[in-house]
Amino acid sequence: MIILYDNQTSGNAYKARLILHKRDLPYTRIEMDTDNGATRRPEFLKLNPEGRIPLLVLDDGTKLPESNAILAFLAKGTDLLPENAADFAQVLRWLFWEQYSHEPNIATVRYWITHKIEMTQYRKLAIEEKRTRGVAALGVMETHLAANDFFAAGRFTIADIALYAYTHVAEEGGGFDLTPYPAIRAWLARVAAQPRHISITA
Amino acid sequence: MIILYDNQTSGNAYKARLILHKRDLPYTRIEMDTDNGATRRPEFLKLNPEGRIPLLVLDDGTKLPESNAILAFLAKGTDLLPENAADFAQVLRWLFWEQYSHEPNIATVRYWITHKIEMTQYRKLAIEEKRTRGVAALGVMETHLAANDFFAAGRFTIADIALYAYTHVAEEGGGFDLTPYPAIRAWLARVAAQPRHISITA
């Protein structure tokens, strides 16, 4: 059976839980207490030397880190990842954008606030930079969603799952205010209304 | 004909040039003077509101940003992006890793040094953080390449193109020293020896 090394508060891990549930794939969930060093212990570092979750381990022992690679792997051959090159490309475009322009800002601000990470001088300056970039990322999403129901291919895909994960909790701990983004809020409701949706706390 | 909005010093743009050449696809190259605001002008922002290169524009007007999405789009259906799910997943895993753990550190340090970007207080602290993370990323690559000739699927794929782009110029401007990484250096030579290779300055 698939094993998911997981953490309930992680949006990246939630992506994996959400697609596993949508695809009705049985899996064993191992909750990792990241605040208390569970991902830094030798037995986990043997599985993923970078000490990060989510990590998928398949029956044959294959290890797959990187939340969006997990999404693409579990979506391949389904409607969640279009086969035609043009739509496939746009899904990937948003997956890469999420990891480069969205997650490092929106997820990191949430993590530093909700996990009460020590505010070093670097983090004090970085959090302002990340707030600015996070607001810019929300602006990009708002513009796109004002004209499109979903991010790519004219339908719900893993691009929506990837972007939903941290956007829907962006307000946690005073990180980002979604009030000025009606198109994002309408899209969040559309995503949550998809079949076999589960919440991040499920 | 495909149009590539390009910049010769950009490793991300080089990825696009390299795969276009490997696939022998004709394209029009438009060099953007990023240092002098070419990507911030209204006519370019209409094509890519984020003002970034590389940007691919197809015959039908489709716009595709994100260097690794460009790689995946142009590799789809070829040996450069395996079709079987297990190999496909590992290629994507390294593409996401490159954009999350490698490029923001190794490429950014190179950019700040070679383009003489003003060292604000934030950047002074950030560059130390990025050097540490960049060295960690090179360590991950060295460990993987000590046991594997290429990053995924047991052969040359777009995962190698993506990681080659900034690794092979990591030393520019005193950024990162590759001397302690023999497996990376051997892999750089293997990548450069692949059919239809071109240099970043070609």
How would you describe this protein?
The structure is a homodimer of 202-residue chains. Chain A has helices at residues 11-22, 42-47, 67-75, 85-114, 121-147, 158-167, 182-192, and strands spanning 2-6, 27-31, 55-57, 63-64. Chain A has a four-stranded mixed beta sheet with strand order 2-1-3-4. With 202 residues, chain A is α+β, with helices and mostly antiparallel strands. Chain A has two domains: 2-75, Glutaredoxin, CATH 3.40.30.10; 85-192, Glutathione S-transferase Yfyf (Class Pi), Chain A, domain 2.
List the helices and strands and how they pair.
2 copies of one chain form a homodimer.
Chain A: E1 2-6, H1 11-22, E2 27-31, H2 42-47, E3 55-57, E4 63-64, H3 67-75, H4 85-114, H5 121-147, H6 158-167, H7 182-192
Parallel strand pairs in A: 1-2
Antiparallel strand pairs in A: 1-3, 3-4
Helix pairs in contact in A: 1-3, 1-6, 4-5, 4-6, 5-7
Distinct helical segment count of chain A: 7
What is the rounded distance between the termini of chain A?
20 Å
| Main sheet makeup of chain A | 4 strands, mixed
User: Which two chains have the most extensive interface, and how many residues on each?
Assistant: A-B, 37 and 37 residues
Assigned CATH class of the largest domain in chain A: Mainly Alpha
Number of strands of chain A: 4
SSE succession of chain A: EHEHEEHHHHH
Strand content of chain A: 5-15%
In helices, the fraction of residues of chain A equals 40-55%
What's the number of domains of chain A?
2
As a whole number of angstroms, the C-alpha radius of gyration of chain A is 17 Å
Strand order of the largest sheet of chain A: 2-1-3-4
Structural class of chain A, by secondary structure, is alpha+beta
**Gross morphology of chain A:** globular
Mean pLDDT of chain A: 97
Oligomer: homodimer
The CATH topology annotation of the largest domain in chain A reads as Glutathione S-transferase Yfyf (Class Pi), Chain A, domain 2
Task: Flag low-confidence runs of chain A.
Answer: none
